[in-house]
């Protein structure tokens, strides 16, 4: 079934972020009189940079007419010590919003790793405050189902969802999500630990297009993709991010001419980990991705290697072409999070809110 056959659905117009100065820290700030080690000082310096880059992203979003909400930190107390979740800025992993018949719904995550379980509590409370119906996956199985929000992606303005599984989210989540959403959920089996969430290699675009990284593509002497008998681009052995069946499924849905294949350098610089929101101000899509203006002043291959940018210029041009002037691209510095295996999309929970209580807007 081609993507054009799927019914219309509102595109997210609101970004939810967890802005914190404690990224990477396991405890709340130590007393001022305690002498910090060099390692602790480096962690706090990095946490400050993450805060700065996330704050900048929020301001850029607001400038473009995107609603922005911030959610508080999750903490827990043990032996009278307040502990933090060091990775909780990666908010998209805490669950996923969806809209059905103009009603808001939220599916909370159940993390694979015990160290992250608890990060979803405050975001779930926020979802309830926004009027969302909460759907814990555990109601569908006596054994808890592992599900992380970075594995669940919706095609812009389509009632079509993709669910990655095999690295973090488990296969049992597929049927559970189908029961909840009652829409088409396409399973994508992920194969590589470096691309452990679907949002690391799949980015649906407006105008029924797709950004995709399936592995290291093999090209001929002229730089053209070499295809196999089924028309799939050949990949370097061992580099596949997903199964061949998953690759074929995506091509059954998307027209080949609307699929943009990322290079390995772009994928490693989190080119697929962008977030797309629709502005209420000008009714245009806004894509936010890692990038620094300084990266455009030097050789692009070097800039990509150093994560100063996430797209070659020709990739940006292709994205604008296939979306037919529906979308604007904004590059924001975000490399401070890349060495913790996340980027822009990882830190943003997307939802659609027609009206919102002013008390929850930052």
From TrEMBL:
Alphabetized Gene3D superfamilies for the sequence: L-arginine/glycine Amidinotransferase, Chain A (3.75.10.10)
Gene Ontology biological process terms from the UniProt entry: L-arginine deiminase pathway
Pfam family, one: DDAH_eukar
Signal sequence residues: none
Gene Ontology molecular function: any one: arginine deiminase activity
Record-linked PANTHER family: ARGININE DEIMINASE
UniProt-recorded name of the protein: arginine deiminase
Nucleotide-binding as UniProt keyword: no
Pathway: Amino-acid degradation; L-arginine degradation via ADI pathway; carbamoyl phosphate from L-arginine: step 1/2
Catalyzed reactions: L-arginine + H2O = L-citrulline + NH4(+)
Organism, as annotated: Legionella beliardensis
Alphabetical UniProt keywords: Transferase
Enzyme class: hydrolase
Entry EC no(s): 3.5.3.6
